[in-house]
Amino acid sequence: MTSNIFGNIKGVNVYFDDIIAGADSELELLNILMEIVSVARSKNVKFNVDKIQYFVSEVNYLGMVFNEAGMKPDSDRVESIKNLKAPSNRKELQSILGLINYLRPFIPNLSDLLVPFKDLLKKNTIFFWNNIHEKQLVKIKDVICSLSLLHTFRYDKPIEIQADASQFALGCTLLQDKKPVFFASRNLSPSECNFAQVEKELLAICFAFKKFHNFLYGHANITVYTDHNPLISIIQKPLNAIPNNRLRRLRLKLAPYCFTIKYLPGKDMHVADLLSRNVQDCTVEDDETLVEMVHVVGTQLEFKDDSLSRYTSATVQDPILSQVLEFFSNGWPRSLGQDNQSELLHFFNVRNDIVCENNLVFFQNRLVIPKTERKHVLNLIHETHLNFDKSKLTVKKFFYWPGILSDLKNLIVSCPVCQRFQRSKIKDPLQSHDIFDIPFYKVGVDIAEHNQKAYLVLIDYYSRWIEVTTLKDKSTASVIIALKNIFARFGIPKILISDNVPFNSTEFIAFSREWDFKSQTISPHHSRSNGLSEKAVGIVKSLFVKANYTNQDIQLYLLNYRNSPVAGLEYSPAQLLMSKNLRSKLPIDGSHLYPNVIKDPQVIDKSNQYLNYNKNSLQKTETFCLDDEVLVQDIKSKIWERGTIIECLDNRSYLVKMHNSGKVYRRNVHFIKKFICSFLDDHLAAEDNVGSDTSCSNEDYNALINDTDTQSTLRPGLMPDSSVPNCFTPSSVIDSQVWLKKNTLAYLPGRGDF
């Protein structure tokens, strides 16, 4: 009733029939007093004159003494506690503790002082007061006699909050001008005890803001001190940048307040640290929004059959993760000695992102897999043989261990299925033909077909002069006759580049020896090695099509082509070969028909082409040695099969004996790639290299993963060999480093990118 009448007056507080009014000056207090009297007259309220105190500097109100400095306990109440006698039963002890607890705001470590009396308050316990209890009661009386003063809160002054969390409790202090204004502490609930230490520290700050809300809300000058340094960077991050769901939810609770956070060593945070370690026992209800965060990871994980018990058992038995579980439950040490295992040091460095639940360890909501289960998990991830980019997304979302991405890369690189069905190799760096500054010194030949007729097409590497001769058939004899006619007109070349059939026959080889030139065949199914001849065939076919369409002579087309400048040059094939222009139907000055020796700059242009091509080449040319275990791509199916190098030939060509058939093939390096033994047959890289979420370089990885090679045909005259060297067995590998050296994988110690 009294509060309804006087409670709305500024500067007035009412507790039942007791009214207290305070102000910063006598004039302000006089105005408040006049308003109280005016309201009392209007409501017919009467006061006891003997109990009214006017304009005093100190007043005793509700058992507390209020003055200009702040608030302190009433000396009469303190004296009554000092004169308390020992209780004789449980009810008397409860009365004593209730009286003492009234002074709780002034006693930071009251819970610690009351611990010896807890057993006496339990039901079904015989009440027995002994010397220990008596000494503790005397100690409490001495503490009460030296109680500190709680200072008055001033809204116009800066506020300091000290908050700290121990293993089982939270404590906080509100200070102004380094003087205590309010103390608060509470126990942690059973679920909160399972929080990570960084979560407990942030929970302590949230508790302080909730407890002191009336003082803090709307205040613009608040400084929060914590002894947990990693918490500062978390508080300063945007909400979407905080990976831990619980930390994000706690940070969201602080959004209505404006404050700065600073680090204060625990040795300088006496009161909050003491409060967090000495609190009165009480029932604390869980914050459901935070309890949900405890289980959010576990409920989202679906385990098949007994997989959950499998992973929990492996985690508990893992020597590293078992220590992580222990540190998470009992608190992380301030530092780890250098003699600790490197993987444990890694988890120590990222301890603020680790959460443990149901004997499982989570890093940034990703399940940490124990060592014994890593091979199993890798096999599950790569069960359907997806590429690394897709598998990496799965790993980064669900699983973690130090070095997991490098282990995954090495697994995919060495997977027999993935190696068998890889795409064809990308283009190799250019290996250009040597071009001599002598016309008709080096030529290329190929057979073209048009309108069911066969033609021998020859091109001079120096001048780009093209000769076309009709063949009776594609036999070696017809080809030899055509070449003899051409050689009789232009001379015998030193080198002749060609495909295999029919130029690899015994008859043609005998012809090359008789006419003294070197016949050089390309690798089967790799026509790019004879690219100039392929280009000449394309030109000739185009000329045939146009000549047939216009009913003109093909020889006239060839004449005009030979008189036309070579692409990129100002000279024609005729000028480069014969040092003159050929007379044609075009009216040209007769002076251009006289011989004029040309110094061909093609060699320089060819070098530039070589450099430009190699700039765009995405891989380096692989080289192989005798007895190397390789994969050879089948030309038709594009599938990679295992084989062994049995002979190294010229111009990136190798003889390979296939494991499945025993046949021997000649193949260009474009269709060959190194075979890599299975990575999972050996120790995982993470056992020797810790802290690397991504390890091998993109260049090395692309060279190993994205290679696209192709297979070939049996070289005529070679018989299959029955003996093939076996690849070294993975069981001989001692550790992952030896395995990597033998398999030349791109595994490198990483930089810990999570």
From TrEMBL:
InterPro entries: DNA/RNA_pol_sf (IPR043502), Integrase_cat-core (IPR001584), Integrase_H2C2 (IPR041588), Retrovirus_Pol_polyprotein (IPR050951), Rev_trsase/Diguanyl_cyclase (IPR043128), RNaseH-like_sf (IPR012337), RNaseH_sf (IPR036397), RT_dom (IPR000477). Its EC number is 2.7.7.49. Gene3D superfamilies: 1.10.340.70, 3.30.70.270, Ribonuclease H-like superfamily/Ribonuclease H. GO terms for biological process: DNA integration. Residues 435-595 form the Integrase catalytic domain. One of its GO terms (molecular function) is RNA-directed DNA polymerase activity. It holds the Pfam family rve. It comes from the Eukaryota. Residues 1-66 form the Reverse transcriptase domain. Keywords: Endonuclease, Hydrolase, Nuclease, Nucleotidyltransferase, RNA-directed DNA polymerase, Transferase. PANTHER family: INTEGRASE CATALYTIC DOMAIN-CONTAINING PROTEIN, PROTEIN CBG26694. This is RNA-directed DNA polymerase. The gene is LOC113473945.
